[in-house]
Amino acid sequence: MYTLMLVEDEELVRNGIKRFVPLSELNITEIIEASNGEEGLRLFESHRPDVVLLDINMPKMNGLEFARKIKELKPNVKIAVITGYDYYDYAVTALKIGIDDYVLKPVSKNDVFEVLSKLVDKMKREEQQTMLQDVVMEFKTTMNNNYSSDDAGYKVSIAQIVEDNISNPAFSLTILADQMGFSSGYMSVMFKRLFNVSFQDYMVSIRLERAKLQLLISDMKMYEISFAVGFDNPNYFSVAFKKKFGLSPLQYRERIKDS
């Protein structure tokens, strides 16, 4: 759900955009209007919209100055300007400010829809990139925390064996113990001491984090992700994912797309 601010001194233009441009198709659910730059700045400070469409030539404050001020308040806001001038006359200034796109007068509903679509798509890509970075950082932090004791050597070896077998549903504590040269009982005690969690719980957690990453970066089907991260039962995978993250794998992917 996104908020659009229209800053345009011609009420007819504002009404035409609201009435004829299918904003709901872009998940734009709230529209804030201003007829000049000063009013727009006051409203921006209180509402912090996601997208701003503004006239370059406004009373009380020109569009470039307005854009510069709101970028200072919210650097990730997306801005498009409506202009009757040759955009290239001030393109360098616009780029320095951070204006994303423009619409030439006379304004058509198709032109407005196209430019707003670009801005919304840009926001979605940035949001997905941020989520991906957060997941990767969380995964790295989890792994790094596991290597912070005097038993770092064992932990590194165990973590590598786990990584090599992440997609193998038959991988077990017994197999890990054999590769490490310990008995299953001793391996179980050592694992719990080193990782502060049981082998089974650790494997489920690591596999679910890897599945979360795949949901962000791939178009794989749910059952394909399930098998890829070592779950041989897609239904169990879905239940475990929802228990850990509060959403089913499909709901998580849809939320990412909608955001």
Automatic annotation (TrEMBL):
Molecular function via GO: DNA-binding transcription factor activity; sequence-specific DNA binding
Pfam family name, one: HTH_18
InterPro entries per the UniProt record, alphabetical: CheY-like_superfamily, Homeodomain-like_sf, HptR, HTH_AraC, HTH_AraC-typ_CS, Sig_transdc_resp-reg_receiver, Tscrpt_reg_AraC-type_HTH
Keyword annotations from UniProtKB, A to Z: Cytoplasm, DNA-binding, Phosphoprotein, Transcription, Transcription regulation, Two-component regulatory system
Domain spans labelled Response regulatory: 3-120
GO terms for biological process, alphabetical: phosphorelay signal transduction system
Listed GO CC annotations: cytoplasm
SUPFAM superfamilies registered for this protein in UniProt: CheY-like, Homeodomain-like
Location of the HTH araC/xylS-type domain: 156-255
Subcellular location: Cytoplasm
Highest taxon of source: Bacteria
4-aspartylphosphate modification, residue list: 55
PANTHER family reported for this sequence: HISTIDINE KINASE-RELATED (PTHR42713), TRANSCRIPTIONAL REGULATORY PROTEIN HPTR (PTHR42713:SF3)
Name this protein carries in UniProt: DNA-binding response regulator
Organism the protein comes from: Paenibacillus antarcticus
